[in-house]
Structures are given as structure tokens and as C-alpha cells.
Write a structure and sequence with these properties.
By secondary structure, the chain is α/β, with parallel strands linked by helices. The protein contains 12 helices and 8 strands. It has 2 domains: 149 residues, Rossmann fold (3-Layer(aba) Sandwich), CATH 3.40.50.720; 92 residues, ProC C-terminal domain-like fold. The protein binds NADP nicotinamide-adenine-dinucleotide phosphate. NADP nicotinamide-adenine-dinucleotide phosphate binds next to helix 1 and helix 4.
């Protein structure tokens, strides 16, 4: 496979790093020349990663092309390029619909949206793909879990999950800061929080039939300390407010101009 990237930034770097960490991968990669530093760095690290002279050269020399520029410049960049009907295009541009992309890159027939995350560099996380696309699924499947969806509404809703990462770390930071305020050594506090939450993250996989609330109830012994915190946060509408924020992000990514 000849895989090209239009836009060589953080996400492209993560995908290429992940792909090239797979032993015996046969994907040859052609990068667009911007960002110059990131492209040069990737090309210097891997023998079959090259930098094209310009964006058009990426299209002219590749069969599969990933679009990885920021949405603000996508229209301008893509409308200047000549795509072929047989190009297989995977758009990583999170906030542009498949219809918008398809209109910009005519006459391409095979247009897929994919949402990998930067942790793909370490072959972790999951990539959402819409619509189901065996070629894109097998490419991203080399790197991490793939979740293919039939409806754009499912893609959009799943995308909202990626807006919760910072909140997760703030949650851990709140526990960590509380511990250090009470004189626990920074490293012990961090070690304890990281180790316990790593174990908790495994719980849904070890009990695949259990819903998340079932797992919550397993820890929330009646009258116990887990039940206390859960009850207090529910009473203060913390989770309702959180769900409202999910709604807000969903509105933001689905109301497109
Ligand atoms: N990062 C994420 O976590 C993530 C996750 C999911 C989806 N996405 C999507 O992936 C896309 C890329 O995100 P990113 O985080 O990789 O952004 P980024 O780091 O800003 O990378 C975009 C790159 O595009 C380059 N560029 C600018 N003008 C260009 C042109 N005319 N032709 C070709 N390349 C050009 C920029 O180069 P210069 O530096 O030289 O300007 C920049 O390095 C976005 O649409 C975003 O929605 C990102």
C-alpha cells in the first residue's frame, strides 16, 4: 500500500509512528511537506517514509490518502488539489462531515471518516470508522481497536467521548492534590492513584456483561464510603451537569456551517 498524508502534524506523526512500530509492515508512506520539521523527522526515522514536494505529489503517488489538515484550512487546501476517482480517501478532519469532504474532493467515490487518537502512536486506544470500510479497518486495526459504525450520528456521538479526557485527568488530579495537601508524599500519592485506576480500567473487560452502574454498585457497599461520595455527587447534580456538557460538545460538533 502507498499511503499519503495531506497535513503532517501531531496526528499524522502519531499514526506513522504507530505504523512503523509494527514489525514487517509493508506500508510505504508519503508525507506532505508541512509541517516541515515533523515531516523531516519522520522521514529520518523510517526508511520507507518520504516527504513529497507538495500536496499534489502526495495524491499523484498514492492510492490511499489521509486528510489531516485542520478544519479551518481544509476547504482552501483541498479545493486546490486534483483527486482521482480511484483514490481511497480517509478524512481525519474531526469537524467536517463526510458529505462536505466528498464534495470538496470529487470525483473520489470511496470516502471514509476515521477518528484515531494520538495514543495510536503507542498502538493504544480505538479508532472510529464511518461508514464501515474493510481497508481502513484493516489499516487502523494493525494499530489498535477499530469500531466501525453505520450511521454518521453514531460517529458524532462517539466523537464526544474524546472531549472528556482532560476532565478525567482533572478528576485524578483532585484526588492527588487532596492527598498531598494531607502530607502524603507526591510520588506515593501518584503511584497509588495511577495503580488503582489502572486496575479499575481493567474491570469492564474482566466482567464484559456488567454495565457500568453494576460495577459502581459493586463498590458502593450500603452505608460505605464509596456510596457516600457517589450519593453526595449525585445529590449535587454533578453527573447531570457533566451530561449537559456532553450535550454542549455534541451540539458544537454537529452544527456545521
Ligand atoms: N490531534 C488530535 O488529537 C486529533 C484527533 C482526531 C482528529 N484530529 C484531526 O486531525 C486533523 C489534524 O490535527 P492535528 O492535531 O494533527 O493538527 P496539527 O498538528 O495542526 O497538524 C496539521 C498540519 O497541517 C499542516 N498544514 C498547514 N497548511 C497546510 C497545507 N496547505 N498543506 C498541507 N499541510 C498543511 C500544518 O503545518 P504547519 O505547522 O507548517 O502549519 C500542521 O502541521 C484535524 O483536522 C483534527 O480535527 C486530531
Amino acid at each position: 500500500m502507498k499511503l499519503g498524508f495531506i497535513g503532517t502534524g501531531a496526528l499524522t506523526s502519531a499514526i506513522v509512528t504507530g505504523l512503523k512500530s509494527v514489525p514487517d509492515n509493508s506500508v510505504s508512506v508519503l508525507l506532505s511537506p508541512r509541517n516541515e520539521e515533523i515531516a523531516a523527522n519522520l522521514a529520518s526515522r523510517y526508511p520507507d517514509v518520504r516527504v513529497a514536494t507538495d500536496n499534489q505529489a502526495v495524491l499523484d503517488n498514492c492510492d490511499t490518502v489521509m486528510l489531516a489538515v485542520r478544519p479551518q484550512i481544509a476547504r482552501d487546501v483541498l479545493s486546490k488539489l486534483r483527486f482521482r476517482p480511484d483514490h481511497h480517501v480517509v478524512s481525519l478532519i474531526a469537524t467536517m462531515s463526510r458529505e462536505e469532504i466528498t464534495a470538496l474532493i470529487a470525483p473520489v467515490a470511496q470516502v471514509t471518516k476515521a477518528l484515531p487518537m494520538p495514543m495510536i502512536a503507542h498502538r493504544q486506544g480505538a479508532t472510529i470508522i464511518y461508514p464501515p470500510d474493510p481497508r481502513a479497518a484493516s489499516l487502523f486495526g494493525i494499530l489498535a481497536k477499530v469500531i466501525e459504525v453505520e450511521e454518521p450520528s453514531e460517529f458524532d456521538a462517539l466523537s464526544v467521548v474524546t472531549a472528556t479526557f482532560a476532565t478525567y485527568f482533572k478528576y485524578l488530579d483532585t484526588i492527588h492534590a487532596w492527598l498531598t495537601d494531607r502530607g502524603v508524599a507526591d510520588s506515593s500519592a501518584r503511584d497509588y492513584v495511577v495503580t488503582l485506576y489502572k486496575a479499575l480500567a481493567n474491570a469492564p473487560e474482566t466482567a464484559p456483561d456488567a454495565g457500568f452502574m453494576h460495577l459502581a454498585e459493586e463498590y458502593a457497599t450500603r452505608g460505605g464510603i464509596n456510596e457516600q461520595i457517589l450519593r453526595e455527587l449525585i445529590a449535587r447534580d454533578v453527573f447531570d451537569i457533566f451530561a449537559e456538557s456532553l450535550d454542549g460538545v455534541h451540539r458544537r460538533i454537529t452544527v456545521r456551517d
